[in-house]
Amino acid sequence: MKTIIILGSTGSIGTNTLDIVQRFPEEFRVIGLTAGGNIEKLEEQIRQFKPRAVAVSTEASAIELKRRCTGLPVDIVYGEDGIARVAAMPGAELVISAIVGAAGLVPTLAAIRSGKHIALANKEPMVMAGKLMQEEARKHQVRIFPVDSEHSAIFQSLEGHRLQDVRRLILTASGGALWTLSKEELRDVIPERALQHPNWKMGSKITIDSATLMNKGLEVVEARWLFDIPESRIDVLVHRESIIHSLVEYEDRSMIAQLGLPDMRTPISYAMGYPERMPLDLPSLDLTEIGKLTFSKPDHDRFPCLRLGYESLRIGGTMPAAMNAANEVAVEAFLNGGIRFVEIADVIRSTMDAHAAREIRGLDDALETDRWAREKADALVHALPH
Ligand SMILES: NC(=O)c1ccc[n+]([C@@H]2O[C@H](COP(=O)([O-])OP(=O)(O)OC[C@H]3O[C@@H](n4cnc5c(N)ncnc54)[C@H](OP(=O)(O)O)[C@@H]3O)[C@@H](O)[C@H]2O)c1
């Protein structure tokens, strides 16, 4: 029986994680949950999974949740500090890190520093402070298991092989909702259109990131730190069907890939059960039904965000954190109708141009960069003519 804590339990990854817990009640016990503001869903989860403690973003949410959960044996705390306390509470072996965005950095680091293994879906902290997270993980003898389907595929394709034999990592990209649109058509895309991902049902931020290809840019940075490999040896391949989740090429030119239907419960369960494979009662991949798989190169002209990911790594230090924060601000502005789809890349580009990168020596460098870049990106958003 593994005891677990889920950060971001009300989200897409969080609910998929709880689906696995529900399927394997003998294998997992949930002792802590955290959410942002979806009190209704969190209340349901408390009643079903009976965690010892939960945390929410605001005091108002905590007050409302306490009212709803009167008589239930659960501690309810709030704020960034409360979420970090639940992330670090004693008694858990594994923390599923599934908050969206930079908000996950402090609690994920708190979980690492308290010696818990991490199943990492929340890629933004790795982008902001990957080196620091890996150093802390080593110091506290913590393993970070990837949940992102691409990184899980690479992790699985590396199993039983020597890192020094790896030639390159190849991340596959679906291309997102807008891959077939021309540059002119991209100018007029509305959020509802960009949110229609062809293969995956995910939270809104990552779905927009998939449409801009910034998701792949973030994943290149994530892969750099998860697998300790320079960006010059990480490639991206557009594969619309999302069946091959990623590949590793070895020095003898042999390639090993991991395949499966696009269902996040497979990589989540692998990270949760490692090294065991959970017998998931899901449909099997039928390659005869799929017929053919297609591949193409990324289009940097229509989707410039992927290049920004590589560039942020080449510059290094605080630049990926600045890029990440600008992206979060720009995506939110797009979703709220404040900027055009194509301006997301412009806001990130201009924020990066204005940023003087410096080394990340500790958490404060990442957090301070995040604050600075948010202000800068916000000013850029408001300066755009609308
Ligand atoms: N979804 C996928 O299939 C997928 C695949 C690979 C990687 N990922 C990564 O996994 C992470 C989660 O993605 P998702 O799609 O599950 O996102 P999501 O559906 O939007 O869920 C996000 C979760 O984070 C919570 N949250 C949001 N802002 C917060 C804050 N400021 N403080 C505390 N909690 C906060 C939300 O709480 P409330 O809803 O209660 O407000 C929710 O529980 C992202 O980093 C994403 O890139 C996701």
From TrEMBL:
Protein name as catalogued: 1-deoxy-D-xylulose 5-phosphate reductoisomerase
Keywords, comma-separated and alphabetical: Isomerase, Isoprene biosynthesis, Magnesium, Manganese, Metal-binding, NADP, Oxidoreductase
DXP reductoisomerase C-terminal domain sequence ranges: 259-375
Claim: Metal-binding is one of the keywords in the record: yes
E.C. designation(s): 1.1.1.267
Residue numbers binding NADPH: T10, G11, S12, I13, G36, N38, N122, E124, G203
Cofactor: Co(2+); Mg(2+); Mn(2+)
Protein family per UniProt: Belongs to the DXR family.
Its job: Catalyzes the NADPH-dependent rearrangement and reduction of 1-deoxy-D-xylulose-5-phosphate (DXP) to 2-C-methyl-D-erythritol 4-phosphate (MEP).
The encoding gene: dxr
Molecular-function GO terms, alphabetical: 1-deoxy-D-xylulose-5-phosphate reductoisomerase activity; isomerase activity; manganese ion binding; NADPH binding
Enzyme class: oxidoreductase
